Predict the structure.
Amino acid sequence: MTPQVPLVDYLSLGEHPHLVAHQCSGCGARYFDRRNGCANCGGTTFGSAEVATDGEVRSFTIVTFAAPGVPVPFVSAIVDCDGTSVRANLINVEPSPELVTLGMKVRLATYSLGIDDNGTEAIGFGFEPS
Amino acid sequence: MSDDIWILGIKMTKFGKHPDKDTVDLASEAALAALADGGVTMKDMGVLAAGCLMQASAGIGQQLQKQIGQTGIPVYNVANACATGATALRTVIMAVKAGECDMGLAVGVEKLAGAGLLGGGGRAKSDAKTWTPSGRYGAVATTDGRIGTDAMPGVFAQVGMEYGHRYGGASFELFARISEKNHAHSTLNPLAAYSKRFTLDEIMNDMMIAYPNTRPMCSANCDGAAAAVVVSDAKLKTLSLEQQRRAIKVSASVLTTDPWQEACQVLPDVNTLTRNAATTAYEKAGIGPEDLDLVELHDCFATAELVHYDNLMLCPEGGAVDFFESGASWRDGSTPVNVSGGLQSKGHPIAATGIANIWEICHHLRGEAGDRQIPGAKVGLAHVIGLGSACGVHILEKAAA
């Protein structure tokens, strides 16, 4: 089987792909990047928290003009996953304001970014209508 | 003796394309004009704060001194995203307020004509030949366009759409009508980069950048500079009656950053820090939003203007759509907003913006705004926000005399 690597380290692959956040042990604030401390309470210990894979679109934009090398159009969205806000593209939906709506229900989905020179496949994620 | 702080002289250059002038030329033009406006010279200045965001390491303050006066005073070169100009001004205000000196100069300048998307969202993207994790997210490839957007038009589109999701009523057409207002306002501003009136149809059918922001709904990249001379109350009292008459009181000068909120590292929260800055400013000035005769707010995109009606408390919470629909923010409305044309039409030479908006308010408070004068203007508010984030709010009042 082709070895796989996630697009970002907070995407957990396997049978049930999901996002994993660093959760502050003190206040419960969640983060997706490598942490030095908690921006909310100043704590320095973190645990791992599995983020819900079902969510609701709280905001979106359809980007039709981007930097060279970024294919357009695409839908950028903020998805509320049971209280944790996630930034992601909406995928498997036509990028049109008639079809993408505020409040729409979505679920996490993965896709292949392709195979590199070493034969490794990168897997990305987005949210699709559920 | 009061510890009031005053704007003694202030000026902005024409915003637009200045192919024959570099940043030092533009900064010099604004600085010399602000000094002349205040009836003072570089020799009177005790401090200089200056910003040029795109050349943040170039030392624009010292470059400027080498053209208009190497007097040996301390220079603070500042960079704070789109709040750079307000930060320069605030730095000078703090120095004067602290009693370090009794007069100082703040300057902001930028050359942006022809620039496209700015910041990380504008840099060309390409993937490496192998999927190797790097950075704070361990990303193996470019994330811009794969995990949402890094570019400002889309980020601020999401800011406006989120408001729409929370409170309703924020349609593409509503955002376009906000832009229609600012472009209409700019037709009276000879210093605006663009002073062409657009119809709603033209705005909505122009090139879509990031839905719902079309091109005319985005801030206009252009060249420009602005400068202000700040003076202490004690020093002002020693100056001429004419200087005292034209001086504008800084009733509040506030700078905030974004406090942590759930989601703030996913989508920048431009709301809380603006609301915090406004709350503090109103409190310091002893003035409420209902007292404002005009407001210049940071309409970097049409979608941003809407949320700041609410953040600056120009309307009840959740009432920004109704506020705009009532006509309140047009120049003949109850709280005229961006009568200069705003960033969408006057233009947004980044570091100049946070001083140019103060100039616009001062211009009206002095009764010198000509065709676009808001009659009888006595108090105004200027707001900027730099993503990252920093927010500057200044409340200005006409001299009592």
Notes: The mean pLDDT of chain A is 97. Residues 4-129 of chain A form one domain.
